[in-house]
Amino acid sequence: MMDESKGILFDDDFQQSLKEKFYYADADPEKGERLFFDNSGGSLRLKKCVEAKAALECFPDCPERIHERSLYLKGIVQEGTKQILEIMFQAKSGALMTELTASQTMFQMVGLIMENVEGTNAVVSALEHPSAYDAIQYYCEKTGKEMRVIPPNKTTGGIDPDEVVKYVDKNTCLLSVMSASNISGNIMDMEAIVKKARAIKPDLYIISDAVQHAPHCAMDVEKLQIDGMNFAPYKFFGIRGCGFAYVSDRVAKLPHHKLIAKDQKVFELGTSAPGNFAAAIEIINYVCEIGSHFIDSTDRKTLYLEGMRRIHLQERALLYRMLEGTPEVPGLRHIPGVTVYVDTDDLTSRDLIAAIGIDGIGFTECVAEYQKLGVTVYERVNTSLYSKRIVESLGLEGAIRVSPMHCQGRADIDKFLRITKEIAEKYAK
Which residue among 119, 158, 213, 303 is least enclosed by CB atoms within 10 Å? Predict the structure, then answer.
């Protein structure tokens, strides 16, 4: 049996065929050739997602009418809702929450629970994106609840399950822990976190921000038995302008904004945007296509899960190459002057993200240096409202976040490593 601990690369032809399905994978149409390694900030866009969205935006028809085009558009919304819940979230019940952004869905989930569920405190991790952390803080202040913050493990860059239980008690109304860190790439052991937290309070409401994790590994709300999880299509090969979240039946039953005549599980206010759902279906189609390259099945959920598994294995192999390099091109761990922060040996618990620093140059200046050499990465620094709390909780002032994507290959990683070595040598003391 093949060892998957260091990942399994797609063959070159298949990897290249996937890259061709995305817009501007190797070059900006105006700025020229570039290596886009900022997929955690917004991934490369699938051509079919953009085309599906654009095609449906051409029609003036309202999905709430009864003529043929309207019924077609309504069918897209219904089918998209079904596939997002059943295939992407693997939910057997619950409801879909839609907003303009995933951050809005997080605020709405947090507010619903904290304003309607008894308890004296809410627990959140220090690593959370501001949409989750700030939502908890806002509603704690609004409802008079105590806010408890779980510190991260500074070695792994994650949240330890045994640390979580120090903050949860029988008066906790909500626990929020992200599925994976957007700085270190560490994948949280949500299964253990949920199990240990519910051992303390069986009916505890638990939600997880999966915006960072969803493009790398399959979500499974049924397995985790959690009450809410969200993702952002624009970070998952799709489009901007929409955010999706699963909420459990018991969250859906809580009082929330909706038209009075609508079913309790409906969260949309106004007419749906069919193009957003069509684009989401194209994300699923794409992942299923990857799955079909490796297994023979006609079941979309089976193909989707295999596709996500293969994406994760491809990215693990790319991460290993980026960290260790090859005899010809040294990896990040072996380039003098380069530091890999919150680095861990076990790559099975990491998404394809590396947080690095280079001696002799500041993070922001280094990102600009990369840009000059045709590489797009991003700095996460303690002067940013999005990053300060997170990087400082890890004992850092900042980091350069490097986030490639599964459709990129060995040549892309090697190019990045050569450029990194060039920058490190330039600024060596």
Answer: 119
Express each pLDDT in 100-140 by its tens digit.
Answer: 999 999 999 999 999 999 999 999 999 999 999 999 999 99
CA distance 404 to 88: 22
Q: Based on the fold, state whether residues 40 and 99 are members of the same structural domain.
A: no
Whether the pLDDT of residue 268 is over 70: the answer is yes
**Cα gap 128→115, rounded to integer Å:** 21
pLDDT band at 392 (very low <50, low <70, confident <90, very high): very high
Distance CA 163, CA 165 (A): 6
Which residue is listed with tokens 């909420």? 247
> Residue 42: what pLDDT?
97
CATH of residue 238 = 3.40.640.10
Which pLDDT score is estimated for 2?
67
Per-residue model confidence (pLDDT) at position 386: 83
What single-letter amino acid sits at 315? E
Total tally of structural domains belonging to the chain: 2
Q: Does 297 fall in a domain?
A: no
CATH number for the domain spanning 355: value is 3.90.1150.10
- Surface-to-core class of residue 240, CB atoms within 10 Å of its CB (0-12 exposed, 13-18 middle, 19+ buried): middle
Which DSSP helix (H) or strand (E) runs through 285? Answer: helix 274-292
pLDDT tens for residues 270-297? Answer: 888 999 999 999 999 999 999 999 999 9
- Helical axes 47-57 vs 274-292, angle rounded to 10°: 150
DSSP 332-374: GGGSTTEEEET--S-GGGB-S-EEEEETTS-HHHHHHHHHHTT
- Tell me what the mean pLDDT of segment 329-342 comes to: 98
CA distance 224 to 213: 15
185 in the same domain as 100 = yes
Note the pLDDT of residue 384.
Answer: 87
Cβ-Cβ contacts under 8 Å for 2 (sequence gap 6 or more) = 8
Residue 30 is classified by DSSP as T
Query: Other C-beta atoms within 10 Å of 197: how many?
Result: 21
> Please, what's the b/e burial string for 28-53 (b: 16 or more CB within 10 A of its CB; e: otherwise)?
eeeeeebbbbbbbbebbbbebbbebb
